[in-house]
Amino acid sequence: MKGLLFLLAAGAAVYYGYQYFQNPSQIKDPIYGEIRVDFTVGSRQLDLVLFARMTDEADCKMRSEKVWQKIITDCEDCSMRLVDCKRELAPRYSRLFDDESINIAYLSFTRGSRFERDGRMVIWGMTGKEGDQVCDIIKGNLQKRYSGQIRCVPAR
Asked: Which of 17, 36, 78, 106 has the fewest Cβ atoms surrounding its Cβ within 10 A?
């Protein structure tokens, strides 16, 4: 009986340790995930780009796969062009994590718990007004399952 209790306690400690180190309260040396998805609305081609700040390469690959599986399920007409995990983003994309305005509104989400990740979502191919509307719609949907701060960064 003592052996079983010890084994359960050890298993719980390993699980807690894994969760703690895989999901630190601060991400100090991030890897950036990048997912690009093309989709058509009517006769227009739109490009969705999602950037996320991950803890490491394994976290990036695992979460990118989960996001992609969700996109496939929810969007029959979508096609992925690129999934990448890298140490640095190009300067034009890294400034999104400073919430700098660009020529279209984009979604900024900042983690509310150590189990979430910071991210930015841009949808290219829309007018400014459409970008504002779509950003508000996506924000409303994300707030149902993301505890962190979500906001639309307005276009400049």
From this structure: 17
